[in-house]
Write a structure and sequence with these properties.
239 residues; alpha+beta; 29% helix
Length: 239
């Protein structure tokens, strides 16, 4: 009887199957991460919009002016970004002192060593000191200032991003805007930018979002770009 030979190693077909499975898992992982960042940006935009609209409703219900106040920065060991609103007579310090951050990007958690840290790291609001986040995140995506309605003189949006302030001034500066209790209109033009982040830095070509409010207007305009990093078309759309 011929002795049975021991089989060693793997066949070519087995190796190809393993490589195929690994490729599928890697692609699925990249898609999941991309969807997570995209979902985080959309979620932050929705919560920011919701807070502004809640402030409007308060002004309408009370018939008194309401002030929205922001403060914060991502820099330092304990980054915090605050958004709050209250009676205009309260003053920004009191409003921010009572503020409960509405967005996952603002939430601060206590780490195992007692340090403060952001709980979620997939989307961040651009504050004035890190305004270069916006340019970095854009990558090869379309420049929003070259797209409608921002490139149309009659739209009221042309030049807004260069002349109007970012509501999130960052650092120790407080950004404020007042909402009239008489007509629910914002007293000044402002904008808020949101980008996908990873490791505390903007994702090049990642998802981006923008909120714009025009002075003497009552509408919050929301724009979104899926970016190009995870198969998006890099084009802006109003949502």
């Amino acid at each position: 009887m011929r002795p049975t030979s021991k089989r060693c190693g793997y066949s070519l077909i087995e190796l190809l199957v393993v490589l195929f499975v690994v490729g599928i898992l890697a692609a699925a992982g990249a898609t999941t991460l991309g969807n997570r960042s995209s979902g985080a940006v959309r979620g932050v935009l929705d919560e920011l919009e919701g807070t502004l609209l809640s402030a409007q409703k308060r002004a309408s219900a009370t018939g008194r002016d309401v002030m929205v106040a922001t403060q914060g920065n991502w820099g330092g060991a304990a980054p915090t970004v605050l958004l709050g609103y209250g009676e205009a007579t309260d003053g920004s310090a009191q409003i921010l002192g009572d503020a409960v951050s509405s967005s996952e990007a603002f939430r601060v958690a206590v780490g195992p060593g007692g340090e403060l840290r952001r709980e979620h790291l997939h989307a961040g609001v651009v504050t004035q000191p890190n305004a270069d986040w916006w340019t970095t995140a854009c990558g090869t995506s379309d420049d929003i200032t070259a797209q409608p309605p921002f490139n149309q003189a009659s739209s009221g949006f042309q030049g807004v991003l260069t002349t109007a302030p970012n509501l999130f001034q960052g650092g120790g500066s407080v950004g404020t805007v007042r909402i009239s209790g008489a007509n629910k209109r914002f007293n000044s033009t402002f904008w808020i930018q949101v980008v996908a982040i990873a490791g505390g830095h903007p994702v090049i070509g990642g998802a981006m979002g923008l909120l714009v409010v025009q002075g003497n207007g009552a509408q919050v305009y929301k724009f979104y770009n899926p970016g190009v990093r995870d198969g998006g078309d890099g084009k802006w759309r109003k949502i």
